[in-house]
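Researcher: Next entry in the queue.
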Amino acid sequence: MDELTIPEHFDADRVREVWRVEYEERFEDARRWRDEQGLRPAAEDVLRVALVAVDVQNTFCIPGFELFVAGRSGSGAVDDNRRLCEFLYRNLHRISQVYATQDTHQAVQIFHRVFLADPDGNPPQPYQLISADDVASGRWRASEEAAAALGFDVGYLEEHLRHYTRTLQQGGKYDLTIWPFHAMLGGIGHALVPAVEEAIFFHGIARSSRPGFESKGAEPLTEHYSMLGPEVETDQTGERIGSRNNPLIGDLLLFDAVVIAGQAKSHCVAWTIQDLLDDPTVRGRRLEEKVYLLEDCTSPVVVPGAVDYTNEADAAFARFAESGAHLVRSTEPMSEWPGVVGEALTRRARAAGSA
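Model: Structure for this entry, 355 residues:
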């Protein structure tokens, strides 16, 4: 069995819309599909493959929402999610488990407008970049409102802001970006895109596989692009303000291959991959060679007239390929992928042909 056909319930035109998943109907559909296709429980997989869907949430993926990742095409995340759903359905028999991360925020966080103020008390505008020099010069400071909301002394927050922006600069990371309020906990933007959620639910029933859901980004004093750890882990006193998700790293290392897609290519996807490849456990065992990046299921942040991270995203993916990770496309049969996945599926096909 190479690739499966896509189930009839999937409507590619609805990927850009918000709607309620019909769980009971999909439950019955998935059980019928399992029997018709002869699918086995994921626990029986010889080649164990994890699919990691990074932040495929309404806030990033539905046009008109707070931080729609349009890419240069203008329809980036919509096209990406259509291809991602189709990839999952076609390879339902080969994906052992799906992990979905969710950016999870509240209003008073270091990357939202309410956290900072200029000398006149005015907040920055969305997409404003805040450099270490901006903070050192007094152009931007921590706001009294943020200090009151978080229960911190404003002097502590101002010193933290200086420490934070310096640490980003020294680590070669992006300057602090003031993002529009997005992925707000409890809001509709926080939810997964319905078409992707439906595909994950369908997979779980059809393969008797429990998906993993990973929340990130709730710490108020640090950005958290990567699903594996925050941008800055300690404050100026050395007190921990965020930590790495070592249990998730441990889970992913148990798979033969890890396939990564989602939003945005320039930020959460790029830093997740970088964190994974930088992990000492991964480097020491050359496990980077089992990482596969679905390059046609992710797009960079592009806001015309404000920011365009396309070049940075492409450069990051080129570095990942040089390190040993594989750049693949969702439309390519997995049996033709390089490395462990293609080799294992080729051996299986030859064995089946000679049986």
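Model: The mean pLDDT is 93.
Researcher: Noted, moving on.
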